[in-house]
Write a structure and sequence with these properties.
Layout lengths: L13 H17 L5 H23 L2 H20 L3 H31 L4 H12 L13 H6 L6 H6 L3 H15 L4 H27 L1 H16 L2 H30 L5 H18 L2 H14 L4 H14 L3 H16 L6 H13 L9 H16 L4 H6 L4 H35 L1
Helix pairs in contact: 1-10, 2-10, 3-4, 3-8, 3-9, 3-17, 4-11, 4-14, 4-15, 4-16, 4-19, 5-10, 11-15, 11-19, 12-13, 12-19, 13-14, 13-19, 14-19, 15-16, 15-17, 16-17
């Protein structure tokens, strides 16, 4: 029987979406010169087109969350059963992904206090986004007590219908873990079922992304008309802050390898240069795998550790994902004037950590939407801005890949360090 492969989903070229964003912003800014009725008609048409495109993206979020989590956790559980090295690698992935989400949340909150958007930009962004998707101001509530009370859904169907993301994610994780414990034939049937559902929705979202230039242009027109030149300033502000979070996570790989992996700093930095160079040019961790294996051997990591832990890292681990995805969602919330309370921030952090596992093999644009939309919803923020921000993801995506490659090699050093006492005991026996 031939192996079943997931559909190859490719959207339009990133530069085309970026071009649509720039053109839409410029047209929106120039629309002030149109006559009143004509300007109103063009703005209304752009709002309808942009709103329909956003609804197309939104309708895929809940089924993608369920399908991706079930299949992603099943793959992680299967990898963890592959022996001591694989199990240790998966454990480190869980720990580092959780830490990444926490750091990303804290960093973005700090950066938004130190370098906030102007009040005029926030007002303009709210006005522009409201034309495509209503923005409801959320008070600074959302207590920690409410967070814990809302962890478990009373009715999973109701939670899905109301897009109650946190309880939906908790239920899906528990369900996926339960699936990993049942008899192999039934487990395979369920995983295949959810994989088929996921593939079907990926095809749908692929179709939606093919018209992304049209949707982005329509949304950008409304933003340019409302925000004017400050729209470009807001995008630059966004790129710098989100990329800054990614840079911090990337740099964190070095002291982690030195202090925990016990690798000299200069040696580790030198070994990372070849895979990092490939990361910049390809923006693909998978393309960096051969170079990472070579780097691991240069660092003295045993072949049996690197040959297992690095492929698992490439398949299951995105160190920058939880931090940068959570940072994007927080930025969106504050950019439209929302102030999520501590309970909402906790929920977003938890969702950000969990949603990094199933989005590994997805194309960048799909991963961007499927991973960040649930976090934004957990914060009570609109996902309309994501339809625009995905157009400028090329620059942060380079930082993402650099950080992922650095942490993949760091993961191999951590697993190798963990295994040395076990090897020493085995030899002594």
């Amino acid at each position: 029987m031939s192996e079943v492969k997931s559909p190859q989903i490719r959207g339009p070229k990133p530069w085309l979406v970026l071009l649509a964003l720039v053109v839409g912003l410029l047209l929106g800014m120039m629309s002030s010169g149109l006559s009143g009725p004509l300007r109103s008609g063009v703005a209304s048409t752009a709002s309808i087109v942009g709103g329909l495109w956003l609804k197309g993206l939104t309708m895929t979020v809940v089924p993608l969350i369920i399908g991706l989590l079930v299949t992603g956790i099943a793959e992680s559980a299967q990898a963890a059963k592959g022996g001591r090295i694989a199990g240790r690698a998966v454990l480190w992935i869980v720990v580092l992904s959780t830490a990444s989400a926490i750091i990303g949340m804290a960093l973005m909150l700090l950066l938004l206090r130190l370098v906030p958007l102007s009040e005029s930009s926030i007002a303009a962004l709210r006005q522009a986004m409201s034309s495509a998707q209503p923005v409801h101001v959320q008070a600074a509530g959302g207590s920690v007590d409410a967070f814990f009370r809302g962890l478990v859904p009373e009715n999973i169907v109701s939670a899905a219908a109301n897009t109650d993301i946190l309880p939906l994610v908790v239920f899906t994780v528990l369900f996926a873990l339960a699936v990993s414990r049942i008899a192999a034939p039934r487990r395979a049937s369920l995983v295949t079922f959810f994989a088929a559902i996921t593939d079907a929705f990926l095809v749908i979202i692929g179709w939606i992304l093919w018209v992304a230039p049209v949707g982005v242009l329509a949304l950008a027109f409304g933003l340019g008309a409302a925000a004017g030149g400050s729209a470009f300033a807001a995008l630059v502000h966004y790129i710098l802050l989100v990329s800054g979070v990614g840079v911090v996570i990337t740099i964190a790989a070095y002291p982690l390898a030195v202090l925990v992996g016990r690798i000299p700093l200069r040696r580790f930095a030198r070994a990372l240069l070849p895979p990092e160079g490939i990361a910049i040019s390809t923006r693909s961790s998978l393309a960096c795998l051969p170079a990472m294996l070579t780097s691991a051997r240069q660092l003295g990591i045993r072949d049996d550790v690197s040959d297992v832990s690095l492929p698992i890292a490439v398949a299951l681990f995105r160190a920058t994902g939880p931090a940068m995805n959570t940072a994007v969602a927080v930025y969106v919330a504050y950019a439209v004037g929302l102030e999520p309370g501590p309970g909402a921030l906790l929920a977003a952090t938890a969702v950000g950590a969990v949603m990094s596992y199933p989005a590994i093999s997805l194309p960048g644009e799909i991963s961007y939407i499927s991973s960040i939309a649930p976090i934004a919803i957990a914060l009570g923020a609109p996902i309309a801005p994501l339809g625009l921000l995905v157009a400028v993801e090329m620059i942060p995506d380079i930082v993402r890949t650099l950080g992922n490659v650095a942490h993949d090699v760091t993961l191999a050093t951590l697993v190798d360090r963990d295994q040395r006492p076990a090897i020493a005991r085995t030899r002594s026996e």
